[in-house]
Amino acid sequence: MNILVIGSGGREHALFWKLSESPQTGHIYAIPGNPGMGEMIDISVMDNDAILRFAKEKEIGLVVVGPEVPLMNGLVDDLEKAGIRAFGPRANAAEIEGSKSFAKDLMKKYGIPTARYEVFTEAEPARAYIRREGAPIVVKADGLAAGKGVIVAMTEQEALDAVDAIMEENSFGDAGARVVIEEFMQGEEASLLAFTDGKVIRPMISAQDHKRAFDGDKGPNTGGMGTYAPAPVMTTEMTERAVEEILKPTIAAMAKEGRPYTGCLYLGLMITSEGPKVVEFNARFGDPETQVVLPLLDGDLVEIMCACADGTLADVPIHWKDGAAVCVVLAAGGYPASYEKGHEITGIADAEAMGALVFHAGTAKKDDALVTNGGRVLGVVGMGADIASAVKAAYNAVDRISFQDAYHRKDIAHRALKR
């Protein structure tokens, strides 16, 4: 069948790559795609009508929606109405990511473990709450903020500054019209993604992301500077608890609320002394978690995604490979603040010749040269029998790639290596 991937980042390149492996895949297209994905179709991910026309014209049998914004824009709803199979939740289910206050209220109503919180629409009551609760404390823009709308404030002043930035200075635009202020949870973070058809839930292999820009988990939050899978903190027992205490109740709650959830549900977890608690939900594959989870999938992603869309996931076995995968993000100097674009990239072929997977995230073609075109430029993935060997493979490949002002963290998977 012909397949269409929506999106242009590293996550979408990883999805494109894994979908391409399926014997069921005919021609595979990407809107708008990136140079790593071959044929790029110049249509906006927000133009539902143009996407529908393209899908009909090319007789697309499966549309895979990568980013969160087109999900919130109702792309899956429109595709389903047109009789086109789509992987991803409808708009009213994608609100589990689109509104943090919706997600928190849902968890409170159905007893799903998460941090204590309050929601504010005005800055002064938010500041008063921070002064009353003290620090550390977590301040979140309610809406979509490209993974950067969360401030973990270690001092009261940091938290007050975060409220000013979000609510007074509109740092995240409309996403900051409301803020969610949460208790600071002690523990280790992990990501657990799951396939679901709205009834059956199949957890994927666990992963751990590195959000801070610099080594030692220092510096500003980013969209993710690297990741690895599996995450040792997610033991078999902890994964089972996450499924029973969080995934199953959440999918059941969404159905009860008239928002049946299908596709990929991402759990951002804090593994506390009391067990797993939800930090956040995402309504799609994580980035850069996808870049390490999919290489470990031992199966046909097209078959799995079609089963999620068709309600037949119970009939599809899902297996995972032994070993580990590590992704190191090569970023542009200055990211996540201002950075330059247009620097030529060299060495990708050398890295791939060593067995690495190189996923394009922020690249473009200029006069037949590959150049930087974003903050996170490439995700370089190494595989190995264990985390240590995968780390070595990833960094050996990173050393082959260069562009002006490139930087990367040198301590990806440090928590796993210390265990």
Oligomer: single chain
How many strands in all?
Answer: 24
In round numbers, the mean pLDDT is: 95
Distance between the amino and carboxyl termini = 45 Å
Radius of gyration: 20 Å
Which helices and strands occur, and which strands form pairs?
Layout: E1 2-7, H1 10-20, E2 28-32, H2 48-57, E3 60-65, H3 68-72, H4 75-81, E4 86-87, H5 91-98, H6 100-110, E5 117-120, H7 123-133, E6 137-141, E7 150-153, H8 156-168, E8 179-183, E9 188-196, E10 201-203, E11 208-209, E12 212-214, E13 218-221, E14 226-229, H9 236-256, E15 263-272, E16 275-282, H10 290-293, E17 297-298, H11 301-310, E18 319-320, E19 324-332, H12 348-353, E20 357-360, E21 363-366, E22 369-372, E23 376-384, H13 387-398, E24 406-407, H14 414-418
Parallel strand pairs: 1-2, 1-3, 3-4
Antiparallel strand pairs: 5-8, 6-7, 6-8, 9-10, 9-15, 11-14, 12-13, 14-19, 15-16, 17-18, 19-23, 19-24, 20-23, 21-22
Keywords:
14 helices, 4-stranded parallel β-sheet, 419 residues, 24 strands, 6-stranded antiparallel β-sheet
Task: Provide a short characterization of the protein structure.
This protein has 419 residues and is of the alpha+beta class. It is built from 14 helices and 24 strands.
